[in-house]
């Protein structure tokens, strides 16, 4: 099972500033899907960061079903472990259903189907952050009408930002109140990034000069107030 790791380094002065001002580190993880209704959810909210921080995960997924109700937070749900190539058929309005099962699926995506007798439900993908609180960690929320199936591909890309605005884990968020960073791990399972109060997000560490170059195309900044949905809900892959 492949593991991924993002090392976030913050100098002591900047760490003291962030904690004194009450900033929380928010994290999101991307998926790809053909659904136009899918929304990104807060993957984690971390207020116990320090100067050296590891954000780690494995290719180990859960799917979930949830009741369709008003609000931006998934507050109740049913989770099941799932593998690529399997489908989870939700057969109750509360999101429950039988264990996911394999089916002919050459694209090896993960599928969630609303198989309930009537009505809409939410469905999506969740994934644990290693060495962090063992709680529900959803990546996306997709509205599923009766009989509809959504296809989901996990994407090894995360988005991070610091904010004093309080957001719940599992809530819909589409833009940040401060500048964010997108980090892609498609070509490497290890990335090193930094943050400082003078320069914000940094990446592309050069060992010879002991400086952050912030030039490599595997990371980019997103200005505050910019809708970042397209960085977290990607189009389904073409074959």
What are its keywords?
239 residues; mainly beta; nine-stranded mixed β-sheet; globular; five-stranded antiparallel β-sheet
Briefly, what is this?
The protein is mostly beta strands and 239 residues long.
What does this structure look like?
The chain has 239 residues and is mainly beta. It has one domain. It has helices spanning 12-21, 229-232; strands spanning 3-10, 24-33, 39-40, 44-46, 52-58, 61-67, 78-82, 86-90, 101-102, 110-114, 121-127, 140-144, 149-163, 180-184, 190-196, 200-203, 205-206, 211-212, 219-222, 233-234. Strands 2, 4, 8, 9, 10, 13, 14, 19 and 20 form a nine-stranded mixed beta sheet that branches. The protein has a five-stranded antiparallel beta sheet with strand order 3-12-11-6-7, with no helix packed on it. The mean pLDDT is 95.
